[in-house]
Design brief:
Strand order of the largest sheet: 6-5-4-1-7-8
Bound molecules: glycine, manganese (II) ion
Largest sheet: 6 strands, mixed
Structural class: alpha+beta
CATH topology of the largest domain: Creatine Amidinohydrolase
Low-confidence stretches: 1-29
Mean pLDDT: 91
Shape: globular
Length: 544
C-alpha cells in the first residue's frame, strides 16, 4: 500500500514541477494564475473606483527575523491579487480615468525594483522592469523612477489607499526601498506626521455629529475608543464622551476641524472595494483553493492513520506538513495549531510542544497554502483511536452544530445565519448535558465566530453580508472546556473544533474538505487503517 501511494505522490509531483517549469520559461514567474486573471482584476477594480480617483498599493515589507536573517517574503494579498508580482519594494497605481504620456494612454503603472546581479547570486533570479513588462501592465517603471517622479496627485479628487503600518525598515544601502517609496508618497500627498487613522475617523464623527444623534455617536465612539488605550486617553475624545451640553459640542467641533481638514487621500474605501472584489472567487482561484483544501484534507487523513500515543504534537504537525510539501504546497497559510488535552482549549495555540499525548483529544487546525491560496481545516481526534464517552458527547454536539451551520450556508442567506444556526445547537447541547444553566452561557465554551472567507488570506476580506455563488467560507463551531470551568470536572480539558471549507453554489453548499472524515464513527474507523509511516523509525541520537 505504501509503495502505491508513493508512486502516486511522485506522479503528481512530477506533473507539478513540469507545469511550474513551463510557467517559469514562458512567464518568468512561478505562478499558476494567468496574467489575464490579474489584468481583469485590475479592470474590475477600476470600474469600481470613484470619479477622478487613483488607487495606490504598496507591496508588503521584508520582515526581519533576527540579526541578518529575514522571514521568507510573503507578498501582500491585495497587491498579489492585482499584479501577480511577488517581489518586494513595489508600488501599483490604478487610475479611474485615462492617463496620457508620450507613448499614448494608460490606466495603470507598476514600479518595481531593478535587477541586482549580486543580489541574484545570493537569492535567486529577480524579474526587474523587463520581467514585469511582459506581464501585461500598461506601464512599468523602476522604483527609482517613482522617487524621481513628481507624481502630480493633486489633480485627483481622491487618492484611495490603505493606511501605513509601522513595520517598514529603511535599508540605508538602497535609496528607493519600500521605506523611501512610502516616504516620497507621503510627502506628495501631505500625509500628516503622527497621522492616526482611527483617531481621524473618530474626530470626523465628532466634527459631523448632530445634536439629536449625540447619544448614539457617543456610544459608538466609546466602543471604538475602548479598544485602543491611546484613543481612550485622547483629550478631545475624552472631552466629547464627558460633554453634557450642546455648547461644548460646538467647541469640540472647532478643536477637531484642523485635524480633520479635507485631505484628498482616503483610507477607508479601498479595503471595502477590495473586499467586494475578493469575496467571490474566480475560476482560476477556485482551482488553486480546491487544491490547497484537498491537500489539507489529505494531511488530516494521513495523521488519522499514523498517530499513536507516543507521538508528540510536533511530530503530528510534521506529518501534516510532509503531506503538504509532497503535493507542492510551499507554506502553511497560518501557524499550525496542534494541541492535545488542555492545549486544545487554547484557541490560537501554536507552541505545539507537548510530548505526552496519552489518550487525550488532539485538535489539529492547519491549512496548506498552495500558490498563495490557503485552506483552513480542523479535525479533533482521540490519540488512542477511541473517543471516551465524555469526548464523544461533546463531539456530537459540535458535529451537529457544524451540520446546521453548513445547511445554513445557502446562496442568498445572510452570513450571520451560519453562526446563528450552529450556536443554537451548541447552546441546546450544553444545556442538555448540564454544562450550563442559562442559554446565553454557551459563549463561555464557544467564544469565537463560526465562519469566515478563505482565499489569499486565511481570514479573507469580504463584505460578510449575503452569501453568494463562488464564495468559499469556513464553518467551524467548537466547544472548549478548560480545567477549572464551572461544570463537572469530567468535562475539563476537552477542546473540540471541526472546521470545513465550504463552496457556496446555486445548488447549495459543497464541502470541499469532505475527504477528511468528520463523524466520530468514520474517524475511529480510519484510525484503524495502516499508515505508510507505521514503519518510519529513526535511530536514537548519539549525544554525549
Ligand atoms: N485557523 C484559524 C481559524 O480557524 O480561523
Ligand atoms: Mn477558520
Ligand atoms: Mn482554522
Amino acid at each position: 500500500m505504501s509503495s502505491v501511494l508513493n508512486s502516486k505522490f511522485y506522479f503528481i509531483l512530477s506533473l507539478t514541477v513540469f507545469f511550474l517549469a513551463a510557467s517559469v520559461e514562458s512567464y518568468g514567474q512561478k505562478s499558476e494564475l494567468s496574467f489575464e486573471f490579474h489584468k481583469n482584476r485590475r479592470i474590475e477594480l477600476r470600474q469600481k473606483l470613484p470619479y477622478n480617483s487613483v488607487a495606490v498599493f504598496f507591496s508588503s515589507p521584508v520582515r526581519n527575523r533576527a540579526n541578518d536573517v529575514d522571514y521568507i517574503y510573503h507578498p501582500d494579498p491585495n497587491f498579489y491579487y492585482l499584479t501577480g508580482w511577488n517581489e518586494p519594494h513595489a508600488v501599483l497605481l490604478v487610475y479611474k480615468t485615462t492617463q496620457e504620456d508620450q507613448n499614448g494612454s494608460y490606466y495603470e503603472k507598476l514600479f518595481v525594483r531593478e535587477r541586482n546581479l549580486r543580489n541574484e547570486m545570493w537569492n535567486g533570479k529577480q524579474l526587474g522592469v523587463e520581467g514585469a513588462a511582459n506581464m501585461g501592465f500598461d506601464r512599468v517603471e523602476s522604483k527609482k523612477q517613482f522617487i524621481k517622479s513628481s507624481l502630480d496627485l493633486n489633480e485627483f479628487d481622491t487618492i484611495l489607499m490603505f493606511d501605513f503600518k509601522n513595520d517598514v525598515r529603511d535599508d540605508k544601502t538602497d535609496s528607493s526601498d519600500l521605506f523611501d517609496l512610502q516616504q516620497h508618497f507621503k510627502n506628495v500627498i501631505n500625509y500628516p506626521d503622527n497621522f492616526n487613522a482611527e483617531r481621524y475617523r473618530l474626530y470626523q464623527k465628532i466634527r459631523t455629529a448632530q445634536v439629536q444623534d449625540l447619544s448614539n455617536i457617543k456610544r459608538m465612539i466609546s466602543y471604538y475608543a475602548s479598544q485602543d488605550e491611546t484613543l481612550i486617553e485622547d483629550p478631545i475624545i475624552k472631552d466629547f464622551l464627558n460633554s453634557q451640553e450642546s455648547n461644548s459640542l460646538v467647541d469640540l467641533k472647532k478643536r477637531t476641524a484642523y485635524l480633520t481638514r479635507d485631505y484628498n487621500f482616503d483610507i477607508d474605501q479601498l479595503s471595502y472595494l477590495m473586499a467586494s472584489l475578493r469575496e467571490k472567487k474566480q475560476p482560476e482561484e477556485l482551482s488553486l483553493l480546491k487544491k490547497a483544501i484537498q491537500i489539507s484534507a489529505q494531511g488530516q487523513i494521513e495523521v488519522m492513520k499514523a498517530i499513536h500515543p507516543k507521538m508528540t504534537e510536533r511530530e503530528v504537525q510534521g506529518i501534516h506538513q510532509l503531506v503538504y510539501k509532497k503535493y507542492g504546497a510551499a507554506h502553511e497559510g497560518y501557524p499550525s495549531i496542534v494541541g492535545a488535552g488542555h492545549n486544545a482549549c487554547v484557541l490560537h495555540y501554536i507552541t505545539n510542544d507537548k510530548t505526552d499525548l496519552k489518550n487525550q483529544l488532539i485538535l489539529m487546525d492547519l491549512g496548506a497554502e498552495y500558490q498563495g491560496y490557503t485552506a483552513d481545516v480542523t479535525r479533533t481526534i482521540p490519540v488512542s483511536g477511541k473517543y471516551s464517552p465524555e469526548q464523544k458527547a461533546l463531539y456530537e454536539i459540535v458535529y451537529d452544530a457544524q451540520n446546521a451551520g453548513i445547511d445554513a450556508a445557502q446562496k442568498g442567506a445572510s452570513f450571520r445565519a451560519i453562526g446563528n444556526a450552529a450556536n443554537k445547537v451548541v447552546e441546546k447541547g450544553l444545556l442538555s448535558l448540564g454544562l450550563i444553566d442559562k442559554p446565553e452561557d454557551y459563549r463561555r465554551y464557544l467564544p469565537h465566530g463560526i465562519s469566515h472567507h478563505i482565499g489569499l488570506d486565511v481570514h479573507d476580506p469580504g463584505l460578510y453580508e449575503t452569501l453568494d455563488t463562488d464564495m468559499v467560507i469556513t464553518v467551524e463551531p467548537g466547544i472548549y472546556v478548560p480545567k477549572g470551568s464551572p461544570c463537572d470536572p469530567k468535562w475539563w480539558d476537552i477542546g473540540i473544533r471541526i472546521e470545513d471549507d465550504i463552496l457556496i453554489t446555486d445548488e447549495g453548499p459543497v464541502n470541499l474538505s469532505a475527504a477528511a472524515p468528520r463523524s466520530w464513527e468514520k474517524i475511529e474507523k480510519l484510525m484503524k487503517e495502516e499508515s505508510p509511516l507505521d514503519d518510519f523509525e529513526l535511530p536514537e541520537l548519539a549525544i554525549d
